[in-house]
Amino acid sequence: MAATADDPGPSRAGTGTAQGDPAPRRRGRRPGGADTRAQLLAAARVEFAERGYDGATVRVIAERAGVDPAMVNHWFGGKESLFTAVLDLPVDPGAVLADVVPGDPERLAERIIGRLLEVWDATGGAPLAAVLQSVAAHDAAARMLREFVSRVLVAKVVSAVAPDQRELRAGLCGSQVLGLAVVRYVLKVEPLASADHATVIGAVAPNLQRYLTGPLP
Amino acid sequence: MAATADDPGPSRAGTGTAQGDPAPRRRGRRPGGADTRAQLLAAARVEFAERGYDGATVRVIAERAGVDPAMVNHWFGGKESLFTAVLDLPVDPGAVLADVVPGDPERLAERIIGRLLEVWDATGGAPLAAVLQSVAAHDAAARMLREFVSRVLVAKVVSAVAPDQRELRAGLCGSQVLGLAVVRYVLKVEPLASADHATVIGAVAPNLQRYLTGPLP
DNA sequence: GTCTATACAACGATAGAC
DNA sequence: GTCTATCGTTGTATAGAC
């Protein structure tokens, strides 16, 4: 866990700030053994837990891991996906949602539910239960997921279609989606747990659509 | 924490309203009360976990505890409330829902959400998180809650108003209610977490109402 | 030689200080 | 308003593994 910067020591002529001289790292591929990816993951776990999703910065995480911030992009594709990897989510919600948003806004809910059902049916309930468990157990996990859900959902989905009250709508959408996941995959309440996708979509999508674009008081 | 039958303790100061409750008048010899109650709880935990809500019987639970089956009624008010106590639920869902059902069926959802908000706001998110945690962690807990939710919800709420597909409707209602609980009290997503009751009711009740009495595909 | 992990620099966006 | 600091991200050159 201890993200020990590998501290190669010498060289690095004073480019710019002669102060501190924090991490003179060589360029190029590191000598074998240094697992940058794992170090980034470990550093990200600590930072996300301590400061939340928004509070943690890619730069600090990279510094803690002793590597360049660009490594986050290289290994994970960005802050969002790094977070997904930290929480060990089965899929990257941002990516999934992003490619489901384009299209008729009045049918967005159908596409969202349909896609989520595909993903969840493929991975089963285990990852969902794991996430739920850690969220219920650790306040830090709840905070991380809260900020992440708010940010990603609002930015990538709700803002694309919702006329107003975007944060509230995002929370409501989250409640319906999360509740469906719990009841179908963790609690396994029948007949909802075994219903085919068309049935679930027909039942849930209209309600989700109201949260997205319908009238709110 | 859990809503249990009134503790027929030594100094039960009578509130004026005489309840139809089978309030045990403490006459005669005082049993090793707390002991019986605890033994029943322990026995019920085992039985519910092993056989589920439906599979476990009051008779067997009482036998395992070494007491008369009537003690379940005495100490907990019935199988349902015993189960509630075992899960350490903040309230007895059966009781709460039962007294909210009478009235305009088309406004049932408003009454349900309103009442749940009162209860949850009073107890805070801790009990909810505890239930979620055990449900996510232990398959037995998930099974118990599943059967309980199906049975009680279908029997006491959905059957009272829903025209068809009662089990499916019950599952859908469960998903919305549970999701709301998670997002508002465990994840604490704003502004939903701090929204006043009227706002939440206005936002969620119409969706819940559709699950209860609206058209399903 | 190729391939890839790496560091550095710089860009557009955004939030806060002045 | 402008200025500044900082964020996440991208482009590119380079060093080491193969």
From TrEMBL, chains A, B:
Pfam families to which the protein is assigned, alphabetical: TetR_C_16, TetR_N
Stored InterPro entries: Homeodomain-like_sf (IPR009057), HTH-type_TetR-like_transc_reg (IPR050109), HTH_TetR (IPR001647), Tet_transcr_reg_TetR-rel_C_sf (IPR036271), TetR_C_16 (IPR041678)
Keyword Repeat: no
Keywords in alphabetical order: DNA-binding
DNA-binding residues (ranges): 57-76
All copies of domain HTH tetR-type, residue ranges: 34-94
Protein biosynthesis found in the keyword field: no
Signal peptide: none
Domain of life, source organism: Bacteria
PROSITE patterns for the chain: HTH_TETR_2 (PS50977)
Region Disordered, residue ranges: 1-35
UniProt-recorded name of the protein: TetR/AcrR family transcriptional regulator
Natural source organism: Pseudonocardia xinjiangensis
